[in-house]
């Protein structure tokens, strides 16, 4: 601290430190940019090879419902997987969204002290559990339970099991984002509402939720993004039949599950392998879409 | 203030170290493997007269079905030959064949003939070493009430033509197919030798790649049917006879039971040095009659029939 008092040596030292810090951060950013560009380039070049080198029609890939990658009459319709990914992710968000937002409200508005001390760590614990554990629990507990609920008519594997497992997995993501948003709300807003004679429910419903809507949607979108990209847990319980599901209890596939199931069995450079890269490209593209949506939402943030 | 700065510095340093370490291992991995092939080769040229003494690193990658055997034999080989390191990795038949063809691995483990996965010209460069035979059985849930299915009945079941076990002489239960992904070598073998043709995916079927998971699902799910290697069979599932022939080792060896395939260890070109010594060791009586049978495979030498890549019986 003594050196800060304007001596020439101190000044030079600060310049040096500044330079080191700047160089260091530049290197870090550069490294990140290189890694990201390399990944995007790699996935894109592999994924587009399906259409350019192997001559699979993009229309067939995006809208074809028939998946039979081996044999002479191979067809590469990936719509069942694209549909499967969207269906389970949206269902998971539908289940987890309201639950998470209520949990966040409970933690911050209703019992702020205990909520922060006890509930938040518990929810953070949920996000630390590896996905294979969720999958394993789903396989051994949830699947037989669903089967028993339907009286043994269904086998339990399917969209419902996948969506339920995913909803538990994305619960902490949405809850922590919502809780952070709620905590950042200026006290004045709440107090003004109470001062006008509004009840707690009226304050939550008319003031807090509308003000925080963009942040809450951000949480939900990030939850959907996580569900969309989750592979292992879903793969274990969804059944993996390559068909667009007709009901919640039929076996279906997602983009991620078909990639993990097939990637090790196909040889690099074959059309069967390239088409998996095309699905990876599709996943990457969807991630970009989710990020853009989150950015747009943040711009609308009213705080 | 000071201590914070040091902490930041230390963190920076460790992060940089970690990054460079990653970079190094990533960029040198592939050449290292090639290098060891070379060193294995030179090992023999200089020391061939002295026999026994080989050195180098052997990297075997591929089929998870073959992995336990290669792993176990590799351990023994390393104990007998101190200078050799045998590394065994899974990754699937496709990965194994690709890596050996590209020179990234010394040995590519595969459940299927290279011709079935790689381009013809790439497959031609590889030398096949058939080290064991793996046989498969159709398995059903214990309550399904069937013990024997003919080829036609199996085809009806797996193509979705028959959807209830009572239509093939079993209990009144819905059939649930537990299949493998369409790219799986196990599925290819099963369809080729049990069904006689490849079948399309059936709606409502379950697909899983791991034998352990398939077994668990068949054991737990009413009316489920799947297929497993002999080494996975136990009394939690019912193994079916195939057209009246029981799934036993003797029936496979005599050629009566047709649902089996070779386990291959491919090398690029004729093997040399440590790789050759390892593959030779794999084929010795002491390995074939001990490790191979112990892990549930069938020794190639005990087979009374042989097959070519098209699946035709040639002897």
Topology, please?
The complex is a heterodimer of chains A (303) and B (315).
Chain A: H1 8-52, H2 58-63, E1 67-68, E2 75-76, H3 79-110, H4 112-128, H5 131-149, H6 159-183, H7 187-195, H8 200-229, H9 232-238, H10 255-262, H11 271-299
Antiparallel strand pairs in A: 1-2
Chain B: H1 2-47, E1 56-62, H2 67-80, E2 84-91, H3 93-102, E3 107-110, H4 120-124, E4 126-140, E5 148-149, H5 151-158, E6 176-179, H6 185-195, E7 206-207, H7 211-220, E8 224-229, E9 238-239, E10 241-242, H8 249-253, E11 260-268, H9 273-282, H10 285-294
Parallel strand pairs in B: 1-2, 1-3, 5-10, 6-7, 6-8
Antiparallel strand pairs in B: 3-11, 4-8, 4-9, 4-11
The CATH topology of the largest domain in chain B, please?
A: D-Maltodextrin-Binding Protein, domain 2
Low-confidence stretches of chain B: 15-51
- Strand arrangement within the widest β-sheet of chain A reads 1-2
Largest interface comes to:
A-B, 38 and 41 residues
Number of separate structural domains of chain A: 2
The helical percent of chain B reads 40-55%
Main beta sheet of chain A: 2 strands, antiparallel
Quickly give the structural class of chain A.
mainly alpha
Structural category of chain B is alpha/beta
Radius of gyration of chain B: 23 Å
What is the name of the CATH class of the largest domain in chain A? Mainly Alpha
Order of helices and strands of chain A: HHEEHHHHHHHHH
Named CATH topology of the largest domain in chain A:
MetI-like fold
* CATH top level class name of the largest domain in chain B: Alpha Beta
Mean pLDDT over the residues of chain B:
79
- Quaternary organization: heterodimer
CATH architecture of the largest domain in chain A: Orthogonal Bundle
Count of individual beta strands of chain A: 2
